[in-house]
């Protein structure tokens, strides 16, 4: 039951999360159709429930502050943010993923958020360039801070 077992369990939890997100969103008429705010927050809460236990130094209060746009710059909070951004397919190994991020905007956000988020994403596309992921998850902090500063209606799980 070494790392291999832990990895398999983590992978299973991730796939279960994706299934739960898909179920919570219900049938989508197409990628162009957004979700309701309630569905967006439900999916976000599922991601949060997976990432928070991985970073015990990030309390629910800290996570709530991040959700409200108060983004601390510490290893634990940055790696919590990284966990969520990886689940959202926005970051992979510290590198921003433009196309998967834009795809997630289409799937996971209500229509009223989409244009603003697309603009912010394009403005922040280079915010992780030159930053190292280890040991402090700095690219995640830089990306989320940039998005917060460039998107009027900021949302984060």
User: What is the fold named in CATH at topology level?
Assistant: Recoverin, domain 1
Number of strands: 2
The profile of the biggest β sheet is: 2 strands, antiparallel
Low-confidence blocks of residues: 20-32
Shape: globular
Name the average pLDDT: 85
- Write down the secondary-structure element order: HHHHEEHHH
Helix content: 55-70%
Widest sheet: strand order? 1-2
Structural class: mainly alpha
CATH C-level class: Mainly Alpha
End-to-end Cα distance, whole Å, is 32 Å
- Strand fraction: under 5%
What is the name of the CATH superfamily? Pheromone/general odorant binding protein domain
In DSSP terms (H or I, runs of 4 or more residues), the helix count works out at: 7
Assembly state of the chains shown: single chain
How many structural units, i.e. domains? 1
Rounded radius of gyration (Å): 15 Å
What would CATH call the architecture?
Answer: Orthogonal Bundle
Summarize the structure.
The chain has helices at residues 3-25, 37-51, 60-67, 75-87, 98-108, 111-123, 138-150; strands at 91-92, 95-96.
Question: Which features would summarize this protein structure in a list?
Answer:
157 residues; mainly alpha; Recoverin, domain 1; 2 strands; globular
Can you describe what's shown?
The chain is mainly alpha-helical and 157 residues long. It has one domain (7-150): Recoverin, domain 1, CATH 1.10.238.20. It has seven helices and two strands; from the N terminus they run H-H-H-H-E-E-H-H-H. The protein has a two-stranded antiparallel sheet. Strand 1 and strand 2 form a beta hairpin. Helix 1 packs antiparallel against helix 2, helix 4 (75-87) crosses helix 7 (138-150) and helix 5 (98-108) runs antiparallel to helix 6. GO terms for molecular function: dibutyl phthalate binding; odorant binding. This is General odorant-binding protein 19a.
